[in-house]
Specification:
alpha+beta, globular, 22 strands, 32% helix, five-stranded parallel beta sheet
């Protein structure tokens, strides 16, 4: 087992990893930017080193600095968390070259699944359902229009290296194609690769992901599903497990498909296969995330597993249990962001002047904030992951509603009022929602 792990991340996920490491008797090294000097992950790690100024390109994305800190502190492994360098093949390779274990997928896995066009071909070759689309990247607008007519509108134009909703455009006819092509290609440059491809656009689908794990001995298992369909601009707002749309037959089919996908690339680590599921419960592979997910906590709550611990054990050469896991309860996660839901979710960085976190039976709070904490403007706006767990979905919703009523965050605006209204919405309470839910959901400002 590792003696010391450097955590190449910040905030909530860095603190989450530190906690598991402490329970496993592993020393930790936190890195932080000048904007994060007062963050809790800095306080609770065994060692902490300033990695650079606030911009992430000069701190959390600074590979030479991270490797230097790992070597100076004698860390024998690096955990990248999610975001930042968690799916960066170059970082993985450099860690390996310096004799530091990257706790996550191999460089080969990242390359195979990070490029969506390559991932698609891998899935087709291994009998994993994919949406109708192009066999590879598109060279010109004319090629795209021709392929769109072959597939049938509407289509989704996607950047092969994209993520987080960037480099994606829904196109409904030939006339829209040139302008939306230019927009997608321009956004794709953010990922240093402007290649794009086409897929059939599935109207009003469910976004359901399957949690998977694989070890160095070829063993693969799945840990059931999470429903991530409540989204805004392709950004997840709430997740739950099990999915209210799921059936036992569909769970079995999707779990088997996800395991086939993992075995196809001899996957090592904890990851997810993300699928779109249409109204007839036909499912189609979207992408594979070769890292821990923001929403991993709800899977932990219904399977009684620590997924960070599983990641570390797999990286250290331990075998996984050779069985699949199914939900033993119902869990819901609300992502509480420092954003104003009454002003088009505008980011609201600033200082937290008052804080009360909810508790009680079945409530889990993952956060790095405290009274007096200043939320930086340079990073993601998520500040609290609030999880409610109960034996039934309705009980979990009622428990979440109570927890949201208890949650007090003063000094900045947050998305908590949106989630409170969501818990009261009849369609949500009945499990009647798709990825289009937010297009019709009206957030009411009580002050108006």
């Amino acid at each position: 087992m590792f003696k010391k792990i450097l955590i190449a991340n910040r905030g909530e996920i860095a603190l989450r990893i530190i906690r598991t490491c402490k329970e496993m008797g592993i020393k930790t090294v936190a890195v932080y930017s000048t904007a994060d000097r007062d963050s809790l992950h800095v306080r609770f790690a065994d060692e902490a080193v300033c990695i650079g100024p606030a911009p992430s390109t000069q701190s959390y994305l600074n590979i030479p600095a991270l490797i230097s800190v790992a070597e100076l502190t004698n860390a024998d492994a690096i955990h990248p968390g999610y975001g930042f360098l968690s799916e960066n093949a170059k970082f993985c390779r450099i860690c390996t070259e310096h004799g530091i274990k990257f706790i996550g997928p191999t460089e080969e896995h990242i390359n195979k699944m990070g490029d969506k066009a390559t991932a698609r071909q891998t899935m087709i070759a291994n009998n994993v359902p994919v949406t109708p689309g192009t066999d590879g990247v598109l060279a010109t607008v004319e090629d795209g229009i021709r392929e769109a007519n072959r597939i049938g509108y509407p289509v989704m134009l996607k950047a092969t290296a994209g993520g987080g909703g960037k480099g994606m455009r829904i196109i409904r006819n030939d006339q829209e194609f040139p302008e939306l092509w230019d927009q997608a290609k321009q956004e794709a440059k953010f990922f240093a690769n402007d290649d794009v491809y086409l897929e059939k656009y599935i109207e009003e689908p469910h976004h359901i992901e399957i949690q998977i794990a694989g070890d160095q001995f070829g063993n693969v298992c799945h840990l059931s599903e999470r429903d991530c369909s409540i989204q805004r601009r392709h950004q997840k707002l709430l997740e739950e497990t099990p999915s209210p749309f799921m059936t036992e037959e569909l769970r079995h089919k999707m779990g088997e498909a996800a395991c086939r996908a993992a075995r196809a690339i001899k996957y090592e680590g904890v990851g997810t296969c993300e699928f779109l599921v249409d109204k007839n419960r036909n499912f189609y592979f979207m992408e594979m995330n070769t890292r821990i997910q923001v929403e991993h906590g709800i899977t932990e709550e219904v399977t009684n597993l620590d997924l960070i611990k599983e990641q570390i054990k797999i990286a250290a050469g331990y075998k996984i249990a050779q069985r699949d896991y199914y939900p033993q309860a119902h869990a819901i996660e609300c992502r509480i962001n420092a954003e104003d839901p009454f002003a088009n979710f505008r980011p609201c960085p600033g200082q937290i002047t008052g804080l009360h976190l909810p508790g009680g039976n079945g409530i889990r709070v993952d956060t790095h904030v405290y009274t007096g904490y200043k939320i930086p403007s340079q990073y993601d706006s998520m500040i609290v992951k609030l999880v409610a767990v109960a034996q039934t979905r309705q009980e979990a919703i009622d428990k979440m509603r109570r927890a949201l009523d208890e949650l007090v965050i003063e000094g900045v605006k947050t998305t908590a009022p949106f989630h409170q209204q969501l818990m009261e919405d009849p369609n949500f309470r009945e499990g009647n929602y798709t990825t289009k839910f937010m297009e019709d959901f009206v957030i009411k400002n009580p002050e108006e």
